């Protein structure tokens, strides 16, 4: 089954700790993953940032919301235990526990209400729509990814509008900034006039700071959608062979 959203995890989580014993959050996560019949692939699914596991993160947010509503307590770091309020809630046999359900508790309402002067973007995301399946962290990450994608498109449009010589210099500077050996001056020797003396090669960069191997570069500033085809790549391979080169990097604004 798909990884359940954090609101769907709340009731199973509360039921799991209903014996009033203290549980480690990692143990709870493992037990819940079995209850939801998650596959190994689903257990390994990551957030968009790739920094944490999706299911583990959602269990963490379910725990946070239940704690803010006073249904769970955290006697120590990464540990949880049910409270008397949590026991009383389970006695009501609710069909579901979600954000709407938790709003009956004043502490939770206070948690979701931004304080005066603190209504930042982050605060607005914490007060996420109660019908949303995304945790605040997921909403923030997805917003970040959307902004990053839009910025990338804007940068690409700007680069395409400039000259091919600018793009060639940009590629070399990028590789130097990424930590490859050599300097902008060394790498740009073939780029001074905006074209290389060797057909199909626009510049060189040292693979590491010791300069043990040279990578030859070809940069094509083509309009997106105008696909770089076999002839251009064959020409580049031929140029590499002419230099006795072992390695080359072909970079384009297209595909």
From TrEMBL:
Q: Which keywords are on file for this protein?
A: Endonuclease, Hydrolase, Nuclease
Q: Which domain of life is it from?
A: Bacteria
Q: Indicate the secretion signal residues.
A: none
Q: Which residues form the Restriction system protein Mrr-like N-terminal domain?
A: 6-91
Q: Which InterPro entries match?
A: Mrr-like_N_dom, Restrct_endonuc-II-like, Restrct_endonuc_IV_Mrr, tRNA_endonuc-like_dom_sf, Type_IV_Methyl-Rstrct_Enzyme
- Biological process GO terms, please? DNA restriction-modification system
PANTHER family linked: MRR RESTRICTION SYSTEM PROTEIN, TYPE IV METHYL-DIRECTED RESTRICTION ENZYME ECOKMRR
This protein's name: Restriction endonuclease
Organism of provenance? Spirosoma taeanense
